[in-house]
UniProtKB/TrEMBL annotation:
Belongs to the leucine-binding protein family. The keyword Transport applies. It comes from Bradyrhizobium icense. InterPro entries: BCAA_transport (IPR051010), Leu-bd (IPR028081), Peripla_BP_I (IPR028082). Residues 16-354 form the Leucine-binding protein domain. SUPFAM superfamilies: Periplasmic binding protein-like I (SSF53822). Signal peptide: none annotated. One of its GO terms (biological process) is amino acid transport. This is ABC transporter permease. Keywords: Amino-acid transport, Signal, Transport. The lineage of its organism: Bacteria, Pseudomonadati, Pseudomonadota, Alphaproteobacteria, Hyphomicrobiales. It comes from the Bacteria.
Length: 391
């Protein structure tokens, strides 16, 4: 038994093995799910299928948005299946636990679907890279932008788990820093079907703006019910993390004019358009890629470059150090850097949902309103309290 396990481990070390861990059946499955797996596979193929002269495998699993399930999968992958790196990982509670485990076992964790800014703050590790976005960039950025447009009084509708709390906190601070006022907040469980009682509280608050601090299908359900409730007649909804994939379900009529932050949109340039076309051809629903799926593609490419540079994938800290030492460059996010705290830096775009008559196809949904440079979009490294950053 032991000899067989040892033989299996030896064989696995002849390969570079990466795992895509996300929600494949629940509220975030459209936003990451199979799309993130396809993105990882495309990155491996585009890189040539090998790193450090070894074949690269992509495996995947569904964490079902349960921390114990996600942590159990990560432990099994690391301990018995010789996985070198875990990618994507929406659900901040699971992401924080896996980041901690990756440091203990000297593996690599690269978050794309994960949102919490703690990953590059107090909970940063030398084995973690946070690629696509975080709660600070989205919450602060939109909070400031909406107050600047006259939305002064806010009330928050917030998902009751680590990610929602963090997103609410960042947006509140952005609102207050810009001279706005927060009148209150209400918390709802993940996967809520009926938002009536929460929306009544928002309606009664007297706020101009209802900040929707949730994600995935929760965002779609709550915004749809708010429109049905008539809440949008007197109050404006701001979806702090309304992703592109949710807009077809809402419909352009309901969503038009809404503004979102994103570091990637498929229609930005020739490189993003070419990738989107290839991705959609492989996707079971022919969906176009969103920012988090694009982040998996770009981060896998950069990870493989670092594995090549180090000469292998077994020393996670060395691979992440190499990722930080090299500038990033890919067709989806362009040129960028990874800071000492693990934060990947690239511009963010303020995007507005098109009116129905402005859209020419199912995924022609957004237009760029403004570009925020990366060094302005993300939290200053000095403010994160990451132990890796020298004071």
């Amino acid at each position: 038994m032991f000899a067989g396990a040892a033989h299996g481990q030896a064989q696995a070390h002849d390969r570079v093995r990466i795992g895509v861990l996300n929600d494949q059946s629940g509220v975030f499955s459209t936003y990451q799910g199979i799309g993130s797996v396809i993105a990882a596979q495309m990155a491996v193929e585009d890189y040539g299928g090998k790193a450090a002269s070894k074949p690269v495998d992509v495996i995947t699993a569904d964490h079902q948005n349960k921390t114990d399930v996600g942590v159990g999968i990560a432990r099994r992958w690391y301990d018995t299946e010789s996985i070198d790196a875990i990618f994507d990982l929406p659900n901040s509670a699971i992401a924080l636990a896996v980041a901690n485990m990756s440091e203990q076992k000297n593996k690599v964790f690269i978050g794309s679907g994960a949102g919490t800014a703690l990953l590059t703050g107090e909970k940063c590790t030398p084995n973690t890279v946070h690629w696509t976005y975080d709660t600070y960039a989205y919450g602060r950025g939109l909070g400031k932008a909406v107050v600047a447009q006259g939305g002064k009084k806010w009330f928050f509708l917030t998902a009751d788990y680590a990610f929602g709390h963090d997103l609410e906190k960042q947006a509140m601070e952005g609102v207050k820093a810009s001279g706005g006022e927060v009148l209150g907040a209400v918390r709802h469980p993940l996967g809520t079907a009926d938002y009536a009682s929460f929306l009544l509280q928002a309606q009664a608050s007297g706020a101009d703006i209802v900040g929707v601090a949730n994600a995935g299908d929760d965002t779609i359900t709550s915004i749809k019910q708010a429109a049905e409730f008539g809440l949008t007649q007197k109050q404006k909804l701001v979806g702090l993390i309304l992703g592109m994939n949710g807009i077809p379900a809402l419909g352009l009529k309901a969503a038009q004019g809404a503004q979102i932050m994103n570091p990637y949109y498929w229609d930005l340039n020739d490189g993003t358009r070419a990738f989107a076309k290839r991705f959609a051809e492989r996707h079971p629903q022919k969906n176009y890629p969103n920012d988090m799926q694009a982040g998996v593609y770009a981060s896998v490419l950069h990870y493989l470059k670092a594995v090549d540079k180090v000469g292998g994938a077994t020393d996670g800290k060395a691979v992440v150090a190499a990722m930080k030492a090299m500038p990033t460059d890919d067709p989806l996010f362009g040129k960028g850097t990874i800071r000492a705290d693990g934060r990947k830096i690239h511009p963010l775009f303020l995007l507005e949902v098109k009116k129905p008559d402005e859209s020419s196809s199912k995924w022609d949904l957004l237009k760029v309103v403004a570009t925020i440079p990366g060094d302005q979009a993300f939290r200053p490294e000095s403010e994160g309290n990451c132990p890796l950053v020298k004071k």
